[in-house]
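We modelled the chain as a single entity of 100 amino acids. Its sequence is:
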Amino acid sequence: MLRSSQWPRAAAPTTPALPWQKDRWQNIPTALLTLRKIDATSLNRHNTALYALLLTQAQYKNDIIATSDSLINIALDYFSDGKRHIECLIYKGAVLQELG
């Protein structure tokens, strides 16, 4: 499995509710800290799913081993097609590999 330093960098679309997302991987530790400051309970369904995907990505890129697949499942349940769905599937696979 490729780790964060081996992943190709893709352009990230912006979302009005999360404007900092555009360059979210410029400073990976800062991105994780920023995500952890967000009160996810106040987000709508779309942004909750996006938050779950972004947090999963940030944890993976910071080499934080997943202890469960529940976070990525939130995103996977919401994003049923398109680029986000593919991103979810990639990270679901990474999480499952980490879980053994």
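As a brief sanity check on the tokenised model: The helical segments are 28-37, 45-61, 70-78, 82-99. The chain is about 55% helix and 0% strand.
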